[in-house]
Structures are given as structure tokens and as C-alpha cells.
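In response to reviewer comment 3 from the previous cycle, which asked for concrete evidence that the modeling workflow produces usable outputs, we include below a single protein chain processed end to end. The sequence was submitted unchanged, and the resulting C-alpha cells are shown without manual editing.
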Amino acid sequence: MVKRSIVWFKTDLRLHDNKTLVKAIAQSDGIIPVYCFDDTHYKTTNFGFKKTGCYRAQFILEAVCNLKDNLQKLNSDLLVLHGNPEVELSKIVKEFNVKTVFAQEEITNEEKLTQNKVEKELFNLDCSLQTYQTNTLYQFDNLPFNPENAPDVFTNFRKAVEKDCIIGDMFEAPKQIKSPKLPLTILPDLNALQLESTNTDVRSAFPFKGGETEALDRLSNYFYNTKSILTYKETRNGMVGDSYSTKFSAWLALGCISAKKIIAELKVFEEKHEANTSTYWLFFELLWRDYFKLMMVKHGNRFFLRDGISGLIKAAKPLNKFALKKWIDGKTGNDFIDANMIELKKTGFMSNRGRQNVASYFCNDLNLDWRYGAAYFEEQLIDYDVCSNWGNWAYLAGVGNDPRSNRYFNIEKQASVYDPNATFRKLWLTKK
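The workflow returned the following C-alpha cells.
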């Protein structure tokens, strides 16, 4: 009997540094790469927003297409499924007599529920599920503390990790993959995902395209062609252009590139050129990303409650739908907030500085339930990452990982510092 396995790709859409893929190849006579467009990812949430909007969906389609192309170059392919993973994967298990499914380990509640459903269905088919942590810089089991004892203040986490932890080696991309003959499958389009088509706004700071190939090209360009990494700390709060920040976040969110790959390339760059506060700051930001994932493991669903992890119960008030819509449409009357919200609505992207300001305005000036803001970001953002998005919103709302109870931004002062000539505001408030 041929020992065949499925590699279930999720938010690890790459061949390099993919532990799940490498382990599957090593333990199998042949593998069947699979990606499933999960119906639940394209439904409307309890907050009234799509879980996945058109911008991210388009980016996902491009990333899956690129993964399929790259697998075909290694004499394999990608089966593209559409439906509920527990149902669709079971069909492939039965068709190809699969005994093991390899996949990325999930850490957040909804994703874990799906993983558990799949594992239950596989058990009924005498098939096992093996999962691996693949989307962080550090392995959580190598940290100097268990997740439940992890510090709730980032600085304490950072100091402990920098002192006691090392980043593990990357997993090399396979040179060839042995797969059985796979049936032809076609990617759905946005219409099949019940979404409208999207057009790139000419004012976009950076028109993203999904896929591992694009991610590695951006890494090379940012480090070597422009050497923008050398000024990252000074420019990262910029708002106009394509090089003020790395723009790695969208590819990281889908696993088109791994955090370990970025750091490995960063070390090569530092040896060849220069190490400075900006090159360190990129590591610092990736550490924040790991931290929010670890906090999600520690606190679980509390991050999705109105009082977050703080335990400070905030009285629920009726939702001001009028104020919410004004914020979404960029019609609050505050030009700095409105320009940022229009950019998000038209492109699926917003700068880090913009995100902090619009979230502060939402929570403090409009006094709205922060979860609605987080849910709207979930729909709109190309680079949506469940841990970073909800962790950051809770942080700004004063109910997350922040020793300060009220993180308020003076919007006018922020605008004068980060958009002193109103270049950004003129760009997005001018009718197109």
C-alpha cells in the first residue's frame, strides 16, 4: 500500500521554510498539496462585516495561484477546494487512501474549531492529523516561559527572549515533490466567493500582489536594490509612497514569506553592508508579531470580548450606526482621520501611523465599541492577521496588553507631525 499524505496549506502559502511540507515529504511516499477556500471565511460576522473583503480575497487568490505554479515546477500540483474543510478534505482522503494530513497548528479559537472538526472527520476515516507551528519567529516551546506564564507587558517579554532564546534554522524548500496524478482544479473567482471585483486605486501607496514569488522579490528590493532597510526606523511612520515601510505584513499574514526568512536575509544584509538601529527595528517589529500570537494562546477568546483581557467591564451602549458609517466612509469631519479611512476603503491598506490614529479616534473621540472597528479592519485589510489585528485594537482601546489604561492620540498634533504639509490628506481627500 502506498503511504500518501495530504499537505493542507492554510496561512503558510510558501515552499521555503515550511516545516509542515518538509515533514510530510520525509514521512510519505507521495504527497497531495491541498488548499481549501473555507466558506466560513467569506461570510458576514456578528458585527455586520464580511470576514474577508474583496481586497484580501484577491490577494489570497493570487497567492494560491502562485503556490500552484511553484508546485507545478516541482512536478506536483495544488488541489484547490471550496467548501467546508472537514467535508472537502475527507473526500480527498477517501479518493486517494490518505493516512495522514499535515497542517499548520492553529492558535485562535475559530481556526482551532475548524482544525478540531477536520481531525474528528479524519479519525472516522482512520486518518491522523499532524500539525506544526510554522508562522512565528520563535517556537513557543523554546521560550523561557510557558504561554500561560508569559509576561503581559511586551518589554518584559522582549528582554527575556533576547537574553535567552535563539531563532531556529530555516527549513529548505524542496527541490522536487513526488505526487500522484492529481485532477485539474480551478481557482474560484471573487464572484464565487460572493464578493465584488476590485480595482487598484492609482493613489495606492503600494499595490500588493499575493504570492511567495512577489514576497521574495519585495524582500530583495527593500534590502538590496533600494537599501531602504537602513532608514526603516526613521521612515516607518511615513504615509505616502512605497518604501517608507517594509510592506512585508500582507505576505507574512498569509505565510507567503516566513519571519525566519526575513531575519536570515537581514543577517546576511548586515554582514555585507551595515547593522544599525533600523535593521534592529525590523526584528523588534517581528517580535511584536510573535508576542501577539503568544498572547492569543495565553488569553484565548478574551481578546474578542468588549473588556478584552483587562477585566475592566465597560458598560455596553447602543451602537451609534450613524457615527460608525461616517468613520467607515471617511466623513467624520476630521481630515486626517478621513484621509486614512478613505485610503483603507479604496485600497485595503493603511499605514501603521494611520491605524493607530483612526483606532484612537474610534475608541476615544467617538466612544464606540472597539470590536466594531477591529471587525471592519478584518474585512478590509489585505494584511489582516487575527492576532495582530485584535491584539492591537485591544491595546489601543486600553483593554489589552498595555500598562496604561487610556492610550489617547491628539489627532491634530499627530497630523501636524506626520503629515506636516498635508501631502497625505490632499492625496486622499481630493476627488478622483
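The chain is about 45% helix and 5% strand. We consider this sufficient to address the reviewer's concern, and the full set will be provided in the supplementary archive.
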